[in-house]
Design a protein that fits this description.
The protein has helices spanning about 15-25, 60-65, 90-120; strands at about 5-10, 30-35, 50, 75, 125-130, 140. The protein has about 140 residues and is of the alpha/beta class. The protein has one domain: Rossmann fold (3-Layer(aba) Sandwich), CATH 3.40.50. The protein has a six-stranded mixed sheet with strand order 3-2-1-4-5-6, with helices on both faces. Helix 2 runs parallel beside helix 3. It is elongated and about 50 Å long. The structure holds NADP nicotinamide-adenine-dinucleotide phosphate (NAP). NADP nicotinamide-adenine-dinucleotide phosphate binds near residues 16, 38, 78, 81 and 131.
Amino acid sequence: MKIRDSVAFVTGANRGIGLAFAQELLTGGARKVYAAARQPERIPLAGVESVRLDVTSPEDVAAAARQCTDVNLLINNAGIALWTGFLAPDSIEAARSEMETNTSGGRACRSRRHRYGQRNYSSKGQAYIRSSTSAERSRSRGR
Ligand SMILES: NC(=O)c1ccc[n+]([C@@H]2O[C@H](COP(=O)([O-])OP(=O)(O)OC[C@H]3O[C@@H](n4cnc5c(N)ncnc54)[C@H](OP(=O)(O)O)[C@@H]3O)[C@@H](O)[C@H]2O)c1
């Protein structure tokens, strides 16, 4: 994976590992870093382009794809772990939320990437990284 001169997009970039990804991408020489968050005004990092994105919102995902057409490195970091007990009264609702955020949300962002990526992913080194516990991981074209 090539960081220098990449155009990266990080979901859940307002805190935690996502914020660290965005920071490291800047340090590593990414040409542009889109930092996406449900509340982009809370991203405590200069030098990034903020994007409003709730990964469970098809409208947000579509808008981000229209706005960020030059991305060649997508880091699908946003995720939740509710640690709800299997027999807890709200266990089904919690499991649905986790699936919707960690799996469906990530897949929606990834499929959008493929759509607009047809133009931008023609050179080597593109990557898709999923850092959620649902654990799909790094895919580079040509591997
Ligand atoms: N930390 C670990 O030890 C560990 C281990 C394995 C896997 N992971 C995975 O790594 C990722 C980041 O972990 P973390 O420790 O940095 O978690 P974190 O501190 O809880 O941060 C989660 C991030 O995801 C965002 N997010 C949650 N739901 C979202 C949604 N619907 N749309 C957009 N953003 C959303 C949060 O935004 P808000 O601020 O708006 O809530 C926050 O920015 C997660 O996917 C997690 O499952 C972490």
